[in-house]
Every structure is written in C-alpha cells, then in structure tokens.
Amino acid sequence: MTATPVVLTLAAALIVIGMAGVLARRNLMFMLVSVELVFNGAGLAFIAAGAHWAQPDGQVMFLLILSVSGAETATALALMLRLERHYGTLDVDAMRQLRD
Amino acid sequence: METDFMFAAALTLIAAVLAVTRANAVHALLYLIIALLGVAVIFASLGAPFAAVLQVIIYAGAITVLFVFVVMMLNLGPAAEARERHWQPPGSWLGPGMIGLLLFAELVLIVMHGDAAGAGGVVDAKQVGMALFGPYLIVVELASLLLLAGLVVVWHVGQGGIGERR
Amino acid sequence: MDEPAVLLWLVPALPLAGALVLALMGRRWPETWIARLACATVAASAVLAAIMGADYLAAPGARVQVLWSWFTAGELSPAVALRLDGLSLVMVAVITGIGFLVHLYSSAYMAGEEGYGRYFAWLNLFVAAMLVLVLADDLLLLFVGWELVGLCSYLLIGFWYRDPANGAAARKALIMTMAGDVPLVIGLLLLFSSLGSTAMPTLLGQAAESWPPGTALPITAALLLAFGAIGKSAQLPLHTWLPSAMAGPTPVSALLHAATMVTAGVYLIARLHPLFALAPPVLAFLAWLGAITLLLAGLHALVQNDIKRVLAWSTVSQLGFMFMALGVGAVTAAMFHLFVHAFFKALLFLAAGVAILALGHEQDLRRMGGLQQRAPWAFWGFLAGGASLAAVPFISAGFFSKELILAALWQRGGGALWAVAWVGAVLTAAYITRAFIIGFLGAPVTPATGATGWRMHLPVALLVLPTLGAGWLAPPFGALLAPASGATLPATETAFLPALLAALAPLLGIAFAWYALHRRPASAPPRLASVQDTGFDRFYGAWVRGPYRRLAQRLADDPFDRPFMAAAHLAHFLWQVLSATQDGRLRRYALVLVAGTAVLLAMVMT
Prior knowledge:
The complex is a heterotrimer. By secondary structure, chain B is mainly alpha-helical. Chain B has helices at about 1-20, 25-45, 50-75, 80-85, 95-110, 125-135, 135-155. Chain B is built from seven helices and no strands. In chain B, helix 2 (about 25-45) runs antiparallel to helix 3. Helices cover about 70% and strands about 0% of the residues of chain C. Chain C contains 25 helices and three strands. Chain C is mainly α. At the A-B interface, helix 1, helix 2 and helix 3 of A face helix 1, helix 2, helix 3, helix 5 and helix 6 of B.
C-alpha cells in the first residue's frame, strides 16, 4: 500500500494544476475543464483518507463529490452557452458587468 | 502495487498539465479523460474498486461527454484555436505557476506531518453500500435533490434555444 | 415695614397678556379691536397704579410682593419679587400714564399700516417689560426686564422692516446697548459672588456693611454697572444709536426713546445709588461723562435739519444732565428731571408727529413752517414742550427741575461742572428755539394735507398740563423719594447769584437763536454745520464693524469644520479605493481567492 502522504501530495498537485489553469486561461470553457481537475484532486484526497483508515466513508464522500460535480458542470455549461450567445465570445475578461 | 501507483500518478500528472495548456478544445478534453482514467487506476490501487468504477463511468463517461457535446454545439474551428494561442502567450503562465508552486509547497508541508502508512485492505462495494444505506441515508437523498435541482436549472436556462448564434 | 401688595403683579401682567393675545390674534382682528385691547390693558394698569399710588401716599412704606422663587443653583436663588416704593411708583406712573397716551395716539397715527397688530403687540410687551424692570426687587429680574426692553426697542425701531435701512438702525441700537449690557452682566455676577445674593435690599445692605468706600470692589462693580447704564441711556461713547433710532415710528420714539427706555439707565443708578455712593471715582466719572455728552449732543441738536433728530440729540443731552446730577449724588433732582423730562419730551415728539402727519410725512424742518393756523394742536403742543425743555422761568416744569440740578451742581460739584451745565442750558434753549422757529413759524412751505384726529390731539393736550405745571410738585416729590434713595432734595436756599444766572440761561439761549436766525435766512445752516457728525460712527465703522466683517468673511467657508469633515473625506477615499477592487474581472477575483488561501495556510502552519 502506498504511503498516504505521497497520495495526498499527488492530490495537492492535481488541485494546484487545476487552480493554475483557472487563473491562467481566458476561455471560459477551459476554465471549466480546469475546475474538473480540482474536483478530482479533492476526491483523490478523500479516497486516500478512506484507504488510510480502511473505512467506506471516504468513498461515500467521493460519491457526493461526484454528484456535486455533475450538477455543477451541467449548470455551468448551460450558462456558458447562454453567455456565449449574449456576448458573442467566451472571453471571461469581456464579461465585466458585475461591478460598482 | 507501488509501481502501478507510480506509473499511474506520472501519467495523471502529465495528462493534467497537458489538458490545462492545450489550445484546441477537443485535445484538452481528451487529455482530461486520460487524467481521469489515471485517477481511476490510482483509486483501484488504493483498495477502492467501487470508487474507481464510478470514476470511470460517471466522470470520464458522462461528464466529459457533456463537455464534448457542448464543444460540438460551440462549433469551434481553426479560428478559435488561433485565438486561444493568442490569448495564452507563454508569459501568461508565469504568475499562476508561481502562486501554484507556493500553494503546492504549503500543502506538501502540511501533508508531510501525517502518519506514513495506515491500515491496509480493500474496501469493497458491499461495505460502501452498507454505509450508504445506513448512516449516510439522508446524504443520499440530499444528493438526489441536488441532482434534481441541477436538472431543473439546466432545463430552464435552456429555454429559448441554446446554440443559436447572434 | 414691607407690607405685601396683593394686586401688584397685575400691573405688568395685564400688558403682557395683551401682548400675547395680540401676537397670536393680531393678524386676524380688525384694527379697532386691536387698538381697544392694547389701550385697555395699559389703561387698566394705569388705573391700578393710580389706586396703589393713592394708597401708598396715604400710608407710605414699601410694598413687596414675592411671586415665586425663580430657580436655585447653589447659592444663587433669585425670587420673582416686585417692590413698590417711592422710586418705582414714580416710574410706574410715568410708564403707564405716558404709555397709555402713546397707545391712544398710535391707534390713529399707525392706522392703515401693515402690521398694525404686530405694532401693538410689541408696544404692549414693551410696557410690560419696562414695568417689570422698574418693579423688580431682584437684580436678575431687573435684568430680564432690561433685556426685554432692548428687544422691544429693536423690534419697534425696525418695524418697517421692508426698508433695510430701518433694520440696520434697529441692529445698531441693539448692538450698542448690548455692548453696554456685557459689562452690566459681569458687574451683576461680581456683586453676587462677593455679596452672596441678588435681591436688592440684601445686596445694598450687605454692600454698605462689608465694603469700605473707595476700595477696588465697589468701584469695579459700580463701573461695570455704569456701563450698562451708559449703553441704555445713550451716553458717550455709546450714544450714536439714539439718533439712528428715529427710523422707527414717532410714537415709539416718544415712548421708548424719550420717556421710558432710555431712562432705565438713570433708574438703575438711582435704585443702586447706595452702592454707587461707595465708589466716588465712578460718580465723578459719570458726572463728567454726562457733562461732555450734554455739550456734544447739544451742539449736534443745533445743526440738525430733521425734526426728530433734533429731539433725539436733545434726549441724549438731557440724559447727560441727569447723569451729572447722579454724579454729584443728587438722586432726587435727577429723578425729578427724569419725571418732568418724560412729559415734555413725549409731548414734543407727539406734537412733532402731528405736524409730520399734517404735512404728509414731512420731517425736514426747512420744508415745514407756518403751522400756527394749519396745525394748531402741533403748534401749541410743541411750543409748550419746547418752553419746558428750554426751562423758561416759572411757567414751565422744566425750569424747576433744571434749577434743582444746577443748584445741586453748584453746592456739591464745584464751579466747573456748574459752568458746563449752564452752557448746556443755554444750548438747549437755543436749539429748541431754532427748531421751533424754522419748523413752525414763518411762511408755509409744504401744503397741509394730512388729517389728524382727536386720538392724536387729546394726548397732546393732556400732556401740556404736567409739562407746564408739574414743577410745583417738587417738594412732595422729594418726600416721596426720600426713603428709597436716602437722598434729600438740595436746600432751596442757594446762593442768589448762581440761581439768577441759571434762570437767565434759557432766555439767553432763546435770544441768541432768534437773533442768529434773523441775521441769516432760515435755510442756511450756521457755521457749525460742518461739525454735523463728530465721527463716532465713522470710528466705529473703521475699528469695530470693519474688522468684524473681514473676520466673518475669512471664516465664511467654515475652516473649523474641516477636522470633522476629515472623517467623511477619509471614508469617501476608502470607498474609492475599495470600489476599484470590484471591477468585475473574474480572474482577478480568483487570484485574490487563491492568494488568500495561501496566506491563511501559511498562518495556520506557523
């Protein structure tokens, strides 16, 4: 069995890579892809914890993350398509109306 | 098991980096699928076969397909790819990279303090099922509510047609 | 010895009630109702005063009515108490008597004016305030009356407020009397803090016991109080407001600025004269101040062309006379002159008012004339008043009062003061004769178109009698005032020569004026006219009003408010900074989130 800290390190790496993607990309579509990576990293962390204690709780948590991610992705994509129709572009920097 | 894990981990990381940095949307999605499958292998190596299967079916199978459908509706062509490259000059990765490294360092430092190895063993589907129907019953119901909400939202937002260009 | 007087409070209360009612209803009532109510309240006060006066004369002895205790703050506990003794009885008689006549006169003079109700409300309020002033047994209550009459003076001088010049004159009067009131308050507080009470009998008794004459405390207190009197009674240097106050209606000038308000200063010194007796330098100061004022004002009166201004300067001059008498300790003589002066000065103003109205609001002497047939009431009234002012021997009351003062000056003040007063008497006769000749005799200039009714003629007629005859009241007057003032009338047996000279002074003045006017035409002013204005107003303008106005302009944008506004400006600045962070850029928000997470993790780890 692999040492838990190593697995958690991998999970941290996945999260960080996803976060860097969110910060760096201008296209909304790619931002959502990066967010998926973050979710996966978090799920991996939970599974690793469950395996550490040999209990099903980690997998249950992962299941919830899965459903949340599914709902979120569906909603986000629907909204993204609407935004694309409204602004004519998927450039996040162009969508600046929510401000003072 | 160790080698399985190492190999899958390396694959996952490389696929993740590539998925985030591609200019072509479909390429990025494909690399995302590879990363997700890599994570499934890691689940299996950790003794969580149920989670691994779920990962493959739902994440790689359903959610990514959803992405693919949307990309199809967006009708991105070569012009889009060129635009993506234009938006992402190499220098744009410097800032996020640095702050990512900083965050990674902090997380590693936190993680390193924990116990090295824990109790081993496989936690199979039966155990998970008993947990779900037992203590976590309400959680299951709530998850289904959440999915219902997501369904309603998507249906509503989609009214009036999606994908019609201005 | 002090008997309670049950109805004394009604005397000031009735006009006060009238003022309140008229202030509320004056706009809605017809003129007849307003006039009747106003005259009725003052008449009722006068009748009450007459009854109480008769009672007092039958059984002399002060009557005190303590109404209630005003407040208590530590040692200070003034009471609202009224005292009727000889001194206040004289003043009450003057105020209510002349007050009633002026009210009656005003009901015709001010007929048809906008603000008729307002006028009578304030006139009633003035009578009430003046009565409170003279009846007060406590210095603080007296001060309340003092300030209220100042307020009424302001309101009435500026009655025709639509002309800004009247407002300026009213403000000038108020500010100059206030300049005298500040030392008065300080003096009042000094008296209280040293002697422990503000009730006048206690105060005066305590002062006589614990303050040796001629020491610093009584001198300071007396000097401070004297300034209040100087302001209110228009002596130098606070005298220029009185001629400007002629911007108000003529009956107001008759009541306030001749008979009553300006005499409040004289009354104050007379009432507190035991205190002043402890400060001989202050008395000497007052005597010489009065002398200078007498001469200066007399010269001014000689060159005026507006009939009301002549009378105003004359009032200043006669008040100087009274101050001279007070300065040598002849309180009774001063009060007698106050009493007589009230009658003839009011008569002069009212008669002048009849003439002014008859000629269609003409006040310039050079354009009046030939009034013997055309305005007989004005003519004979002014003649009688003028004779009394000039102190024509024996037939006028002014002769007796002026004689008393001159005799007192000779006895107690020495030759210098007497000589100045004598010159003043000559001047007085000269200027009033000049005014009479130019304004009332000679060929008519302005047509007499105005109508004047019985309500204006009756007061004039009624005032002639005391103007000419009150002189014979001198001895009982002295007896009346003796218990209060402690001063007796100077003995009537004085040296023969000064008395003769004093009697000749008015005749000299009349002759001088007659001769001067026949030598040159009436319209050409005498050579003294170049001294028309001795520059007091210019001085005040340059050294008081100018700097004050410049300072006010510098402070106009409120620099002292800046520290308080600093908080508001800081908040605004912070808002601007913070709102720059809400620019709607999603990736920036994400960056901030991540950075915050990194910082928090770092904090958790250490």
